UniProtKB/TrEMBL annotation:
One of its GO terms (biological process) is regulation of DNA-templated transcription. It comes from the Bacteria. Pfam families: RelB. This is Type II toxin-antitoxin system RelB/DinJ family antitoxin. It comes from Anaerovibrio slackiae.
Length: 77
């Protein structure tokens, strides 16, 4: 029998609930999803998705943009 280790995670409750809903639709438990994630890290020796900071818009003139327009410009990037 394979030895196991215990992980204790602290996560935002709302994020956990949303993730549980997606995993349920996929037929996966949270434990299975965590195991898949860790196996992919071990297999590829890397995080299994790109990690990057969002790019800033090339130009924003906050003096003339509405708050909604400014937010929209930031979210597009």
């Amino acid at each position: 029998m394979e030895k196991t280790a215990t992980l204790n995670l602290h996560v935002n409750q709302e994020i956990k609930c949303k993730a549980d809903a997606v995993l349920s639709e996929l037929g996966l438990s949270m434990t299975s999803a965590k195991n898949i994630y860790l196996k992919q890290i071990a297999l590829h020796r890397a995080i299994p998705f790109d990690l990057a900071l969002p790019k800033a818009p090339s130009s924003i003139n906050a003096d003339i943009m509405s708050a909604q327009g400014l937010q929209s410009s930031i979210e597009k990037v």
